[in-house]
Here is the input.
Amino acid sequence: VVAVCCFFGFFSVAWGPVPWIFASEVLNVKLKNWTIALVTLSTWMASFVVTMGFPPYVTLVSEYGGFYTFACINIVGIVCIVLFIKETKGKTLEQLQNFYK
Here is the structure.
């Protein structure tokens, strides 16, 4: 129970808002409606897959194996964000759009 609470807490302040902020603040204004729709769809689909797939996966590999798998996925995600998503603080929208072209 403590691990699940920690997961939700860290997800809410770290991974949860990243796609929403990136889609609404960084991407081109002309594509904003489509990107937000895509973020919504992908977030709901990922939640569905994890919710439906986690119980059978835990019975297959054990509880520890399930949580370690998600920890490894998060580590890979952190590395990808550090390498590919640049800091946006203090930059104008035009600078960001030119950077991500």
In short: Helices lie at 2-13, 18-26, 32-61, 63-84, 93-99. Residues 15 and 74 are 9 Å apart (CA to CA). Residues 32-61 form the longest helix (30 residues). The two ends are 43 Å apart (CA to CA).
